[in-house]
Amino acid sequence: MDVNVLGSHASRLVARAGGLHPPPEVLLSWPKPNYVDPEERGWGTPIVLMVFLGISFLVYCARMWARLAISKNTGLDDILVSIAILPLFGLTISTVLGIRIYGFQWHVWDQTRETLVTTREIAMAIELNYMLSTTLVKVSILCFYRRIGDRLTNQFIYWVYGTIVFCIVYGIVFTFAIVFTCTPVVGFFRLFDIAWRLQHELTCRNEGALIVACAAISSVQDFVICMLPILLIWNLKIGKRQKMGLCAIFGLGMITCICGILRTFYATKLYYFTYDITWTAYSGWVWTTLEAQLAVICASGPSLKVFFIRYFGTDTTRVGYSQTGTPSKSFGPSSKTRSVGFDAKISQHSAQQSQCTAGSICDDVPLEGIHINHKLDVKVEERDDCSQVSFASTKALTALPMPTQPGWRGRADWVDGCRTVCAALRPGSRGTSGSRSRTREGDVEAGSAF
């Protein structure tokens, strides 16, 4: 086959008709401008965006209330998502103004001299607010992963740190690239202002390639951030039902991935497959805004558990099993038992579980049979999910009666935030029940609150 013929076929396959600069034949094919009653989009979509903004803000407020007032356990992730709320408002307001007032509600041939400038100004505002808000939310989610990953594998932590660096570098590079798309910068807004162009020299880079690359990389980041905890959870030694539940919680972020893919699709269509850029950009800006709003909602989802337990939960008693197969019971509003596994040797001594009530000492506490090593398999029972620091909110607290117990040489008062009091009995107390009853007072060696 002739090389020239093959080249012509290839050109037709990749030929594109679209972008910011339509050729003369396309301009001549457009209808005459209609400045009286042009075809335009209505208020339906702007109202939807404002509703989602309200939902996002309410979810954010519930998250911060849960962290500040209930669990009293804030972190860097909360600070970052709080900062992200400001550009999220800017993004939503810019999009609503752009698609309803400043030109993106009309076809490109119906634009006025003023809207040819305002559409470019709004486009810059939307892109910058999007970059700032989504980058902060992504880093916030990754910081949350880092908080819950203290006892997890080093490989997971390295992935988290690597993704944080990736998101920060992406945000900085593309923010500067968007701002300096044209030289001088003001030329970005005056791209379609013929009078200004005749008086000023303007140089612009490939805006289409920049925006499409930005959208595509953002979608990849969304997917990686969603998959990180799912892959980790799937390897945990927990029940399949628990795995599916946790994967569903963290998998909510896949909604933002869908929005990111649609944003990439409309960006590609806008710059490479149509010259009616304002009419096509309408859909792209909508998905851009929804992606940022849903990102805040998904980022706040895991933190809302204690909020719903406090205000919508009921007192429940659950009986579960630890990894060793030992039954465990916990009391309180939505109490839970969780096991965290570590790579270490476990003592060969068997630990026998006993149940005590507040103010009493169990008859059978063979504490010398428990050998505690660093990185031992730990079973954590939270007495009250609603508070991690308040002693007053704990329920069914088990403790030794320190002030009245003869032979007790530990503290006689509760330490701030104390949940558990431990005492050790001498090996001699492992005799019969009668001997333990007679020698129990003398066997108490020490106690410490922690």
Automatic annotation (TrEMBL):
Annotated compartments: Membrane
A UniProt-annotated Pfam family: Fung_rhodopsin
Transmembrane segments: 43-66, 78-102, 122-144, 156-189, 209-234, 246-266, 286-308
Region entry Disordered, spans: 428-450
InterPro entries named in the record: Rhodopsin_dom_fungi, SAT4-like
All copies of domain Rhodopsin, residue ranges: 62-308
Superkingdom of origin organism: Eukaryota
Keyword Transmembrane: yes
Keyword terms: Membrane, Transmembrane, Transmembrane helix
Cellular component GO terms, alphabetical: membrane
Membrane topology: Multi-pass membrane protein
PANTHER family documented for this protein: INTEGRAL MEMBRANE PROTEIN-RELATED, PTH11-LIKE INTEGRAL MEMBRANE PROTEIN (AFU_ORTHOLOGUE AFUA_5G11245)
Protein family according to the UniProt entry: Belongs to the SAT4 family.
Name used for this protein in its record: Rhodopsin domain-containing protein
Annotated organism of origin: Alternaria burnsii
